[in-house]
Amino acid sequence: MELLTIGAFSRASRLSPKALRLYDSLGLLTPAHVDEVSGYRFYRPDQLERARLVAWLRRLGMPLARIGVVCDLALDVPDRAAEQIAAYWAETEAELAARRALAAHLISYLSGEETTMPAAQPALAIRYAARSDVGRRRDRNQDTAYAGRRLLAVADGMGVGGDAASAAVIEALKPLEGALPAGNLLNAMQDAVRQADSAVRDLAAADPGTGTTLTAMLWSGSQLALVHVGDTRAYLLRAGELFQITHDHSVVQALLDEGKITPEEADSHPQRSLLLQAIDGDRAARPDVSLHDAQAGDRYLLCSDGLTAVVPAGIIRDTLSAPGDPEQAVGRLIDLANEAGGPDNIACVVADVIEPRA
Ligand code: MN
Fold first, then answer.
1. Residue 229: beta bridge partners?
2. Rounded to the nearest whole angstrom, what is the distance from the C-alpha of residue 307 to the centroid of ligand 1?
3. Total number of domains in the chain
4. Residue 120 pLDDT > 70, yes or no?
5. Residue 182: pLDDT above 80?
6. Residues 184 and 300 grouped into a single domain
7. pLDDT digit string, tens, across residues 47-85
8. Cα of 80 from ligand 1 centre, angstroms
9. pTM attached to this predicted model
10. Do residue 117 and residue 208 come from a single domain?
């Protein structure tokens, strides 16, 4: 295949060489070849499609980190790339609606129709509930669920010391319940995961094969920082739509991503519970991390596979959309998993983002 020079690729993609160099440095679009002597970049003609997608997503205003996720998905699972764009757009429209309301208020205030200046942006609050349940078939509960004023977390333990491991990772995160970390929220979460990792290392030394997943969120008053390892999940219910905001670190998810199995085959796959990543003290966990802007009306669900393996996403969405506080939602979800046979332990955390006086 003949390679294109950066100049030719730039003309064909209508992206400036400067933009192409930026996308390269961000890992969004890596040249097929870089000349060792001159440093010139060369591209394959089939990279044009990805270049165009990057350009359009930039035009849409999507942050660069999210563009990388969409482009990677677009290659193998375009449906999921489409979902990501839909989720981004729903967030953007909600944010725009809030700005529109603020602009309208300021305009009427300054033109004398309104006598009060808009109050300072209200801090948001969360209300929450957490529960884990043994289910109908297991005799031990190795899932742990926790919700406090800042920290939301679920962990699904495995192996002989699985119950201790899932409890230990959440204990390791609890110091975050105190004062908000002075620095970056995500760094604080990653540090806490390192603590969790070393806690589990001791347990795994005594009982090899011991480990746990972890999906946790830290609330700052306006944002939620998410860390995630394994196949526990986080979902966001916003404007009636349910978005899965974590990606399973599982063999089955990898096969799905590669298009080697269908979603139907995934549901009954014999290696459904085999994880590609867990906190097991073996390799240092590399959690996925992300930051989410909160909006009043958002509802978050953190849960273990004991829920998602037996209750379809559509039912989870309908249950979360039904009236009721987080406590009621958690109770209904656990009942649904048990009614579906309760083959595994079930952990659920539900948190609502609310106006403090509401
Ligand atoms: Mn499980």
1. 214
2. 8
3. 3
4. no
5. no
6. yes
7. 999 999 998 999 999 988 789 889 988 988 898 899 889
8. 24
9. 0.68
10. no
The amino acid present at 238, given as its one-letter code, is R
Same domain, 40 and 130: no
Any idea what the Cα angle at residue 63 is, between residues 286 and 303, rounded to 5°?
Answer: 45
- Give distance in angstroms: CA of 142 to centre of ligand 1: 8
Distance 237 CA to ligand 1 centre (A): 22
Both 218 and 103 in one domain: the answer is no
Reported for 320-327, long-range contacts at CB under 8 A and 24+ positions apart, including other chains, are: 320/235, 320/237, 320/242, 320/350, 321/237, 321/240, 325/127, 325/129, 325/352, 326/127, 326/128, 326/129, 326/147, 326/299, 326/350, 326/351, 326/352, 327/129
Round the average pLDDT of the chain to a whole number and report it. 90
Residue list, CB under 5 A from ion ligand 1 = 156, 304-306, 344
Q: Are 141 and 108 contained in the same domain?
A: no
CATH at 19: 1.10.1660.10
Token readout for 281 is: 């003290």
Same domain membership, residue 227 and residue 159 = yes
The alpha carbon of 96 and the centre of ligand 1 are apart by a number of angstroms equal to: 39
- Percent of the chain at pLDDT above 70? 97
Question: For position 153, which CATH number holds?
Answer: 3.60.40.10
Contact 324, 316 (CB under 8 A): no
d(CA 79, CA 257): 10
- For the record, the structure tokens of 250 come out as 């599982």
| Whether residue 157 is found in the same domain as residue 295 | yes
- Quote the ligand 1 centre to 345 CA distance (angstroms): 6
Same domain, 304 and 271: yes
Residue range(s) defining the domain that contains residue 144: 125-354
113 Cα: distance to centroid of ligand 1 (angstroms): 58
CA atoms within 13 A on the CB side of 304: 33
Amino acid symbol at 340: A
The rounded Å distance from CA 140 to ligand 1 centre is 11
Asked if 150 and 177 count as a contact pair (C-beta separation under 8 A), the reply is yes
Contact partners, residue 12, CB within 8 Å, separation at least 6 = 4, 45, 48
344 alpha carbon to ligand 1 midpoint, in Å? 6
Residue 263: left (phi > 0), alpha (psi -120 to 50), or beta? alpha
Using the mean position of ligand 1's atoms as its centre, give its distance from the Cα of residue 306 in Å: 5
